[in-house]
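Let us work through a complete example step by step.
Step 1: write down the sequence.
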Amino acid sequence: MSILSEQLRQKYDGHSILILGWGREGQATYQLLSSACPGAQLFVSDQNQEALTAWQTEHGSTLHIMPYLQSLSQFSVIFKSPGIPHHEPGLREYVAAGGKITSQLNEFLQAYRSQTIGVTGTKGKSTTSSLIATLYAAAGRHTLLAGNIGTPVFEIVDNITPDTQLVVEMSSYQLDSVRVSPHIAVMLNFFSEHLNYHQSIGNYLNAKAKITQYQTAEDVLIFNQDVPELVEISQQTQAQLLPFSYTQQLHYSEFVHQTISQLETIELPATIKKWNILPALLAAQSLNLSVDQTLTALKSFKPLPHRLENVGGYGGITWIDDTLATIPEATLAALDALPRVDVLMLGGYDRGISYQKVVEGVMAKKIPAVVFFKPSGQVMYELIRRDYPESSWPKMELVDTMEQAVRFGYQHAPEGGVVLLSPSSPSFGQFKNYEDKSAQFKTWITQLAPQPNSTASL
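Step 2: predict the structure and record it as tokens.
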């Protein structure tokens, strides 16, 4: 039995437990609790009752299904999935009456915090986490990567040994429930996002801060010194501080300096070299890797999908998928990284944040043509029309479908040009999720291509 399974057995066997949320994480929680706590009474609940029924049919087993966010007082503990906010009235009442809410990440850190590197930030978490895991693996360490990157931490428990290095991407949704911090915490950046979940920018920042809030003097915080909010957090932690900066000359180890100085010898997207490698090197500098070993490991790194992913050359045009650029700052980073952008695709779900920065960036870089997905695209479209003279406007079009957007790209990108999908907004609304948006992007590129076998390159 794993350390975590034994911990769960001691704490929760014989209890009445509600698993709230039936996505991949909720299902992993159910599986582990079923084996670790055979004497517990497990109940499940989800806003989507059909998902629970479908799972029962597929697996041929019966779940004890409860109405969503009702009758919570009967449970000793609730394992809450990250997507369900704490401010739901039913949860607030449950906690006020003395109820206990926990989560996968909270329980996982209680068992394995000393082996864990946690990575958070508004953007760049997945890429930086993956880079850190790549470097630890290159040093011969048994390394597991999990968390918000797509693998629930409960799914990796059976593969953890006392020598395993755990690299966990931690979202603000996940951190909101923790009362334990990892041994090494990495804070990359902080921008306005997820306010519909956290209700205020202060709540969002407080959730992020939990990655270091419970650290001790034996732990380490790696943080971006260019971000005032993260500097403030660093002044409140007990951890040893390892700041990094993209604007100031800070003192780093010789290993970090030498590796950074040779990055031009490896092929990686400019955004990764600029924003992700430095914090990854700080997290891995104790491994005694040589610079050559490190560069070799970085050369083997495969950039993650939907992050400046080169879909290929079709119709004499290069198409770039940056669907996970869901805030203006991420789109601006993409525009800085690419040597040219002829058509930019912006917009999606509108969370009510300011799009002024991305509009200013588009106009300053004189992007020739821009297509907008509603409703946030409508906001950006109107900002350009309001704040800039018509003579300076790019070619613009508001669209309702990806087919219309890709057709616009083919019409306005020149031979050898670049079309970038970097929406500055989440994908849900017009699309199911970012995977759906990306899949439609790729489908219509190939279906509308006048010369499907043509190639182009940046």
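Step 3: interpret the result. The first strand starts at residue 16 and ends at 20.
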